[in-house]
Design brief:
single chain, 131 residues, mainly alpha, 434 Repressor (Amino-terminal Domain), elongated
């Protein structure tokens, strides 16, 4: 199974962990060695850099060691989540893609692609014009 790449949420969690750790004036070694299942300071650094995903259990353990709430690590995460409008656009794009791929005729696909390109150009030009 291919390894999952860290995403924006992993990176934000890591940055928040590093921030809380520094605010508590703890070193990587202090925190890593105080965990119920100790880890190396290098591994903790990977979590802080967002190179590895933090599990829910590890977040609970880190909060106990750092004397903070688990929710402190989630500061700003809501800003990274898609809004309902984004999700509607994603669904519409997926529906459009399925319909496009399902077209039996290459000529029809090419015509639709040209139409989409023309619409994009028209909309882009209209956005440049200021009333």
């Amino acid at each position: 199974m291919p390894k999952r790449k860290p995403n924006a949420i992993d990176i934000r969690l890591g940055k928040n962990l590093a921030y809380v750790r520094r605010m508590k004036k703890k070193t990587l070694v202090d925190v890593a060695s105080a965990l119920p299942s100790p880890m190396s300071d290098q591994m903790l650094l990977k979590y802080e850099q967002g190179k590895c995903s933090l599990s829910a259990g590890l977040l609970v353990d880190l909060a106990k060691v750092l004397g903070c709430k688990v929710t402190d690590f989630y500061e700003g995460i809501a800003d990274l989540l898609p809004t309902s409008g984004d999700l509607q656009n994603i669904r519409a794009a997926a529906d459009l893609n399925r319909a496009f791929v399902g077209m039996k005729s290459k000529e029809m696909q090419q015509a639709v692609a040209r139409m989409a390109a023309a619409i994009h150009i028209e909309v882009t030009e209209r956005m440049k014009v200021k009333p």
